[in-house]
Amino acid sequence: MTSAVSVRGLWKRFGQQVAVAGIDLELPAGKFIGLVGPNGAGKTTTLSMVTGLLRPDQGSVEVVGRDVWRDPVEVKARIGVLPEGLRLFERLSGRELLAYSGRLRGLPGAEVDKRATQLLDVLDLAGAQHKLVVDYSTGMRKKTGLAAALLHNPEVLFLDEPFEGVDPVSAQTIRGVLERYTASGATVVFSSHVMELVESLCDWVAVMAAGRIRAHGPLAEVRGEAASLQQAFLELVGANGRDAGSDLDWLGGGAR
Amino acid sequence: MSGNVTGIVVRLKLSLLRNGLRQSGGRRAAYIASAVVVLLFAVLQLLGLIMLRGTAHADSLVVLLVAVLALGWAVMPLFFPGGDETLDPTRLVMLPLRPRPLVRALLAASLVGIGPLFTLCLFTGSVIAIARGGAAYAVGVIGVVLALLVCVALARAVAAANIRLLSSRKGRDLAVLSGLVIAIGAQVVNFGAQQLGSSGLDRLDPAADVLRWVPPASAIGAVESVSQGSYGTGALQLALSAGALVALIAVWSRHLTRLMTSPDGSTLQTATTAAVRERSSTGLARLLPAGRTGTVMERSLRYVWRDPKTKAAWVTSLAIGLLVPLFNAMQGTGSIYFACFAAGMLGIQMYNQFGQDTSAFCMVAMTISSPRDAYVELRGRALALLLITLPYATLVTVLTTALLGDWPRLPEALGLSFALLGAMLATGAWTSARFPYSIPQEGYKNVAPGQAGLAWISIFGGMIAAALLCAPVIAVTIWLNVAEGGGTWTWLLLPVGAAYGAVLTLLGLRLAAPRTAGRLPEILTAVSKG
């Protein structure tokens, strides 16, 4: 099995706090891969380092067999990134943003415009394509970011919380596009803390908590005996059995 | 019930004022300092107005002051929508209130604060400056109250009528430009005051003759009329102000009722039909070079127009770059070398290029994989800047020369301008790569907390470096002007300065490119704090 992403001994500290504590990971190519973990587990930091947007303290990252830090020309042309926090040029319209992003990547103008039109149609953004991104809803921004990340037809797509704050209709649209994309042999790596989503989308998962990888492998393997990925996850991070039942006994049951 | 509501809203206003003191140390200091400064000004202008008493044209000056202050009240809510939370009636929409008591309560609350106090001082001072006789003082008391109420009601009516705008993105964009309006307005006022100082106050009379019939200035104008014994005129002027007050309250009350009973439009989706403006590509894009250079230039130029922070910075630079040399030339104190101000001010826009992108720099970083990419990116940004700067600096220099009539010096002034521009672009590119910092998108700040030092190093270090880089051209200029027979060769400074500036720019970009390419993650982190 070939690796889409290969991470060795990856570390990142912010002051006293260790965000990523020595990760080793091989992500298989051609899969829909979920990186799951609670808030603050180090998912975003890991994805940022893997995509070359954050310099690691230690460790190496290879994407499609090339070192991210030593061979950025090859890597950056082959990956697409939807970063956390919707980092887009807000004062461009959706269409202008795609035109800008595609041309920056050196694609011919006519090809960029053709692909942008198709992406805007498929992602249901055609009606708002001339509005400024600053006036978009969260779902529209995520879809615009996704379109910008897909425009140059990357081999590996990295998505940081692509479904957070997205309405069900937009989520379904994003899902459809991603499924079609992986069916063609491309790799999607996305982070999320919504287990149901990961379970229904991914065929391969890596579970992160407190800066470390707790488990990784095909979905069925990681889930094991547990009833759902949610259960398996809670057992893995040791958060099971915490119960809020005894407090808040005044809550509900009419005003008293 | 209504007294009750009034009491509650006034107390709310008082708590809001008090809470200004309960912020972090620096902000509290700023809050107190601004309050003290305003109070000091209030006292000073009160004293100044009292001293004006009996001077010729005092009446004209006073009427003009009141009118200007009223104008300030009218535009203030547009520029500082966040300044007074009780100004936003939609915050009270969940409370079961009827319009009439609400209007009374909000009007009373608006009278509480530093702004109204300042206004009260100015109006009182105005009355003291012009009133003669008991009747005039009596009219003065009524006039001051009326004028103050008109000002407050004016602010409220404007705010209520524009609340949709103020709570929308466009309104916030507008607010960012407000500092600018004030800065440029101050320049103009300063210039106007100097003109007045040199040519006397009687210039004010024609304007004042109109304004003494315009509320709320008419309420103060009435004092003057009564002092001169024209009781009928005075009564009419007072009545005008009173009528204006009633009309303003009616308008405000109507907007208020509509606001309280209709849904908040800020989250409604705008009709998609409005967005169907088919613009496949702007005319500008076709003129720009192909490839990354043109793409970068187009985006930079769009941002100059569309991004409020970038636009504010540009308009400031353009305005100051024009006003300083021209005003100095008009006052006869100018030198042609002041024209370099335009190049210097506009060159500042090259600084912190990536900070202007905010976290969207991420998109740029993903497409820079070699020093060559970084070079083309930086060059594109510099070219976009030059597209505006070169003609503008030339224009300012020519205008200044024309005003001074010093045509023989035009070539050397232009040459110096171009050399300075080149030096600013070079140092700007380098500091953009070496000392990037975030520009917060909301509010008035231009530096993210904790990065002020970086911004300081970047801009001032860069400007000093730019001045040093220009030293050879400056030295040659001085030498040619001092040396015997040098005057015939000063035209040489135009090609020399232009070439020197171009070489500096190219060198700066060449030096900045590998640094940019090598520091992409660090730059991204630095500019994403906003």
Automatic annotation (TrEMBL), chain A:
SMART domains: AAA
A single BP term in Gene Ontology: response to antibiotic
Record flagged with keyword Nuclease: no
Pfam families hit by this protein: ABC_tran (PF00005)
Assigned keywords, A-Z: Antibiotic resistance, ATP-binding, Nucleotide-binding, Transport
Stored PANTHER family: ABC TRANSPORTER ATP-BINDING PROTEIN, DOXORUBICIN RESISTANCE ATP-BINDING PROTEIN DRRA
Descriptive protein name: ABC transporter ATP-binding protein
